[in-house]
């Protein structure tokens, strides 16, 4: 599971690479700026690559971001999101039974208001009235948690 609110070190390395896209950043420079070890930088680079980003590395020059991922990762969504609360927290799964099941499980926690649960694939997706919903790889399968500030009896007025 990936979220939009953890993976802080990885996101800092990725943000620096994105902001210097046309130039190489040395492992030492990344280490100094982020106040982490060069081994930690290398591990973050390895993880970023595993997420589908293309990073060129050259001895004595460092790392350069060449291409972004095709994956719908939480930090790619929230990076330029302009919203008050929907999507500020995102959970992303490669596969799960149903985004709705997970959303129902975490929804009682009020801090989850506006949280989006995304899965690349659902094995037991549900539509309205719990009808089966086919949701193979390739679609965008998601649920949004909303704690309205009005009575649910007024929902039809929205």
TrEMBL record:
| Classification via Gene3D superfamilies | Bira Bifunctional Protein, Domain 2, Winged helix-like DNA-binding domain superfamily/Winged helix DNA-binding domain
UniProt GO molecular function: biotin--[biotin carboxyl-carrier protein] ligase activity
Recorded protein name is Helix-turn-helix type 11 domain-containing protein
Q: Kindly give the Pfam families that the UniProt entry links to this protein.
A: BPL_LplA_LipB, HTH_11
Cellular component (GO) terms are: cytoplasm
Q: Domain Helix-turn-helix type, which positions?
A: 11-64
> Taking every annotated instance into account, which residue ranges of this chain make up the domain BPL/LPL catalytic?
93-153
Please spell out the taxonomic lineage of the organism that makes this protein.
unclassified sequences, metagenomes, ecological metagenomes
